[in-house]
Amino acid sequence: MHMPCPELYGNACSSESALLFVREVSRRIQHDLKSGIPAPMFKKCFRILIALDYDVKKALRDYHIHSKKSNLVEGLVQIALKSLHQLNKGYDDVKLECSKAEIARKQQLAQEADEIEHLLASMDITLSLNQKPLNLNKLKECVSALRCLEVDIDLQARLAFEVDQMSESSEYSDMNFSYGSTPLSSWIKVIQDPAVKTVLSAALHCDGRICMVWGSSLGWLVFYAALTIGCTCWGYELLCTLHEFASGLKQKLQLDHGLVQLQNADLLVSDLSNVGVLVLTNQCWDAELMQKASTKLALELPENAVIIEYCQHLTKYCDPKVHSAAEKAVLEIVATVPVPVSWNDSQIIHVYRKVAGQI
Ligand SMILES: C[S@@+](CC[C@H](N)C(=O)[O-])C[C@H]1O[C@@H](n2cnc3c(N)ncnc32)[C@H](O)[C@@H]1O
Asked: What InterPro entries does the database record attribute to this sequence (predicted)?
């Protein structure tokens, strides 16, 4: 099914033509529902709102609320109408913006797929610390599944709704739950840094040592770590929506329990006694969470564990005087690696090693 053609409404870029456009969308939603297809046109309309930078979070929350009610069609149509009307855009504008956004995303995904192909073809196979050959096809499958998942409207709607509820009912802010992703090539750049590679081998050398990701989201870094380093990796994610979708993907990729474990829990309750590598996705965390998390890792992580963080909150623990009762540093910096991530072209990833000091 196609969107109504622009000629139908002339070239006028008025809010009236946007309204006509949405009416057409609504008519088709009704038609789709009659034929038993659940509102695909509304989803398409929604993508347009996202492409146009409309207050998407609000629209997503409304969508989630309405989709639970019996007057689903009416609710969805009202939201679509209101949203596009507020945008005050004509149909031509809307269509152009939408196709620009779709083209840009397609180009980005094609470029990412090329990079992965190139990277995996040239990659040092000993990257896998336990010397097992890397499962390249699984890595590729994992990235393309995650890219599809992250733009799923139902996921985004549930997520926006849960973040809202969570920030009202807990001490966490909504910023604390911001979504972001790290390209596989960026992860590989970090773990292939020569200094990082050396400390990673030492940290995972002892039997039973695992990798852990704090704030594992859809599972990105957990899957990367398990499939590149080849060690058991645990993820802690507080939001049920992200946890459930990540668990579904784990099942789809047939990653067994011995390789990947996903916990729907607060990272502050995690057990660090056998952790060799800890990844903190801390770029948006609240200051209080960051403080509790850094105290926890300084006290509980075993010696020689490697810590990878997205900011530089932990550099204070490299100073022997400021944070150590015994006047010994708790961490030492191993490397700083600039890499592109979804929210920044050059995020400086800080990598540390836990040393003997105590706070
Ligand atoms: C920026 S995102 C993760 C980014 C991502 N994995 C990447 O590839 O860059 C940070 C995650 O931390 C999660 N989070 C925040 N507070 C948490 C807590 N107390 N316990 C567990 N997860 C938490 C958020 O829900 C969010 O999914």
From this structure: SAM-dependent_MTases_sf (IPR029063)
